[in-house]
Amino acid sequence: MSQERPDAVADELRRARQHRLLVDMVSEVIRQGRLSREEAERLVASTRARALDLFPGKAPTFDLVLAPRFARLVAEFTLPARGKVIPFPRRRPAPSRSERS
Question: Which pTM was predicted?
């Protein structure tokens, strides 16, 4: 029995370390700003699924603590969706002096 408790504590520490590393790495990937919003949202969903594998039943904690952090990162650092950026009209070159006369 005395051996079970240290093993459980060691397992909890291992899972917490793995979770922290995962969240930090995903945060840095999003901060690089090279992902589309859709890609970043899929990455966050995968991170949530892995976090719940590590800590079953902790979905409310993830949603309360980490979801706002990821939402802010996604909003701030993802690339705009294609087709939603309004293109500026191209300027016509100014007429040369010979064309003005």
Answer: 0.73
